[in-house]
Design brief:
This protein is of the alpha+beta class. It contains seven helices and seven strands. The strands form two sheets. A five-stranded mixed beta sheet has the order 2-4-5-7-6, with helices on one face. The protein has a two-stranded antiparallel sheet with strand order 1-3. Helix 1 packs antiparallel against helix 2, helix 2 crosses helix 6 and helix 3 crosses helix 5. It is elongated.
Length: 310
């Protein structure tokens, strides 16, 4: 075979080899495409199954929580029946005395005041029972933390004055906003203050500190009372646990239920030695949800003051 013919044969062989390799690569590519499509379908199915399982887990958690609350309700009913009997009997006694003819005005006013005290106590117990039974309810109402604390302050102003209490609020930012059920969360914070006023002997020092840690609002409340013994700190959030003879043991259980419903948590600062200190963590409202005018107004407030005292 001549040299030109040999070269032509080599080129033809190379071309045939290239054609074979191209066909093999094309087949492999189509096979990979098929595998990728199959894997994508499997991923979509896996994602759907994961979503279904998460939804099922959430449903089971809600059912378990509801079952636990219903179980606790049975125990609650028995305990409340006994606790309600005494203030109810007292209220009925004072109410009956109001029917006396020629009752002196001073004694009449005294009976009315004692009657109201008993009825308020009953109302407080029933309210705690209902909130605990619902497990707390989160909401979509937007509220500034400073306004929430101011509402608590105004609500408790008579008791604060009566106890000569010093109230301090310290916010690292004035524009801290929460998405919450306004009245219920305010009630929880007010309950913490009421407990502190009951625990402090004289001149209570009540301090609120609010900080922002990432997307979380860290709200701490501390007092200068006797504190909470270490051996009781693990139990104080349990339903019906109380160290007071007139307490229902539901106040802090309600607080935990309400705050949990707002995707938050509450705990006792076991390292605090100068009284009792509770730390509440709640989701910070995303600033992107605010209007530009609101953001500008909040920024001006933040620039003007980092401390706020009431």
């Amino acid at each position: 075979m001549s040299q030109p013919a040999a070269k032509q044969q080599q080129l033809q062989d190379a071309f045939e080899l290239f054609t074979q390799v191209s066909e093999q690569l094309t087949g492999s590519y189509r096979g990979l495409e098929t595998q990728v499509a199959s894997l994508n379908q499997e991923l979509v199915a896996a994602a759907a199954e994961r979503s279904r399982l998460l939804a099922e887990i959430h449903t089971l958690q809600q059912e378990a929580s509801r079952s636990q609350r219903l179980s606790s309700m049975g125990e609650m009913t028995a305990r409340l029946a006994h606790q309600v009997r005494t203030p109810l009997a007292t209220a009925l006694l004072y109410a009956s005395q109001l029917n006396q003819p020629n009752l002196p005005r001073a004694q009449h006013d005294c009976f009315v005041e004692r009657l109201l005290v008993g009825l308020r106590h009953l109302d407080h117990m029933v309210n705690d029972m209902l909130v605990f039974a619902r497990g707390g309810q989160g909401g979509e109402e937007v509220v500034a933390l400073s306004e929430l604390l101011e509402q608590v302050h105004q609500t408790l102003l008579p008791r604060l004055a009566e106890n000569s209490a010093h109230w301090t609020v310290q916010l690292v930012r004035e524009d801290i906003r929460l998405s919450c059920q306004h009245e219920m969360l305010a009630s929880v914070l007010a309950n913490l203050v009421s407990n502190a006023l009951d625990a402090c002997d004289s001149q209570p020092q009540l301090e609120w500190h609010a900080d922002v840690q990432g997307k979380t609002v860290c709200l701490a409340f501390q007092d200068n009372g006797p504190g909470i013994p270490e051996d009781l700190q693990e139990n104080i959030f349990e339903p019906f646990f109380t160290t007071r003879t007139s307490g229902t043991g539901l106040g802090l259980a309600v607080a935990r239920a309400v705050i949990s419903a707002h995707q938050g948590d509450i705990e006792v600062d076991s390292g605090y030695q100068n009284g009792a200190r509770f730390v509440i963590r709640l989701p910070l409202l995303d600033v992107q949800q605010q209007l530009p005018s609101e953001m500008l107004n909040n920024q001006q407030k933040a620039d003007s003051a980092s401390l706020r005292y009431v």
